[in-house]
Amino acid sequence: xxxxxxxxxxxxxxxxxxxxxxxxxxxxxxxxxxxxxxxxxxxxxxxxxxxxxxxxxxxxxxxxxxxxxxxxxxxxxxxxxxxxxxxxxxxxxxxxxxxxxxxxxxxxxxxxxxxxxxxxxxxxxxxxxxxxxxxxxxxxxxxxxxxxxxxxxxxxxxxxxxxxxxxxxxxxxxxxxxxxxxxxxxxxxxxxxxxxxxxxxxxxxxxxxxxxxxxxxxxxxxxxxxxxxxxxxxxxxxxxxxxxxxxxxxxxxxxxxxxxxxxxxxxxxxxxxxxxxxxxxxxxxxxxxxxxxxxxxxxxxxxxxxxxxxxxxxxxxxxxxxxxxxxxxxxxxxxxxxxxxxxxxxxxxxxxxxxxxxxxxxxxxxxxxxxxxxxxxxxxxxxx
Length: 384
Hints:
- There is one protein chain.
- By secondary structure, the chain is an all-alpha fold.
- It folds into 2 domains: 9-140, no CATH class; 158-383, no CATH class.
- It has 14 helices and 2 strands, in the order H-H-H-H-E-H-H-H-E-H-H-H-H-H-H-H.
- The chain has a two-stranded antiparallel ribbon.
- The longest helix has 31 residues, at 271-301.
- The radius of gyration is 22 Å and the shape is globular.
């Protein structure tokens, strides 16, 4: 898709690289401070060795680390290459997605002067969150839920506002952001009420929280040999029952031959609500595919199959890429896990890594192969 705004391409690329590097610099703060319950704003960036405040000209993304040769200006202590890697990775992801959206034929229905920048901004926020979550998961085997919640907020707001930026039919036809059908909106609404009920029953102590010894703010991907994991899975099934039952009940009350059908179609298919419910439905499907795998795997093998952090991560991604794409991403992720296992076997290493990075890579792949996936979905719908 050719860029139609009369701005030289190199200016766009330079701007996007600068923004990506700056976002990467902020992600470094998130990666270091968030899992340690430290403020993201205060104190200003300092050297962890000597405690000296880092000067603004020593905090320029990418450039400063190279000029300082990876050392503190004051004490010459080594600065972890992770800072440079995260900044470079974020800049590369930002500029790569920009090129895919606006300068290749991999995405159609999107351009810079037709709401494309809006879709692009929502997409890179998701990718930035995935980079931060994956880096933390790799280091500490945990995913901060605050990152997932931030992505969910962006996804819900982004899909709700999108119809005011571009035509809803255009969004739906090209799969730019989630848009719900009336049936999906009904199930999303029912599931939301069910989740609120489950959370209330959990707070009142009527149902029990699984793995209650874990922090409320972090979901750790760890296993305790003294824990009855099957019992913990049963607690999670009880928690999920109101969500599933109320989603099914909402579908039944608004199905085609139900008295509420016409009213619900008129209500739920208003542009902003269709976008909002599409994002909510993407959230529940993203959570469901991972949570279902977690529960069945735990019941089958007697130990925690996947972390709850992975559940929240895929739910968050679903609010932005939609329910179809989050399903595809989930089934792509194991191929990255298999490739990693083969590398480990080849080099005779045994280091395991958490599953969050594999899920993030699966999400990135479906964002790149968006058009191909849509074509396959339409092919299946119309031929089977």
